[in-house]
């Protein structure tokens, strides 16, 4: 599959690049960002996937999080895809910020008119890794995933739905129980239909409840002053309770004074890179 390089910038000895390609799953042109650390010049490196939140593109994480130095030091290739298909000309896809463009929710839609293009789950778990493994110096056996908000939800469900695929998972302020929050109800009813039992396949809390057990060591950071926490959009307590019941190891850190922004992410990003490097470089 042909890749078109959009940009390349040297950063902490490595290269931050952005590429465009024609996606088979999404049936449109998609961009993704990839950081190649200095170690990638001489051998294969682990791959760490970042999933961004509502309204984001591939640019937000690479320009705001400050992850490059830690990724360079630990020799991690970091991939950040876009958050939804683009330019599909579907009626209603640009009407609101929390559904449609920039809000793919990392599900495979089953409802018209979304089901043809809005297949972000298959894109981030299958198509994109295959593309990365074919075109870049990564070790397919060493792959992890993390994300923020909608992308934190995405990271958790990708890891929980694919035991053994990812070495580790972490999240910043994830949407932990989307079947019960306004964002999730809106997105899931639109993409997946009105049968709420089908929503549970993309809900981290329900996936944990149905989980026979996992080797994943989950790290979650949550800002205590996050407006979306107090608005009931994130519901981390439900996820933590489900993990405790299933004896799944999870480190949940409620960070005093922090909000939902990339200032929060930038503060703790090195901890998350280190968390993944522990498993990816083992």
TrEMBL record:
Keywords of this entry: Cytoplasm, Hydrolase, Serine esterase
Top EC category: hydrolase
GO CC field: cytosol
GO annotation, biological process: formaldehyde catabolic process
Signal peptide: none
Residue numbers annotated as active site: 149, 226, 260
Protein's name according to its UniProt entry: S-formylglutathione hydrolase
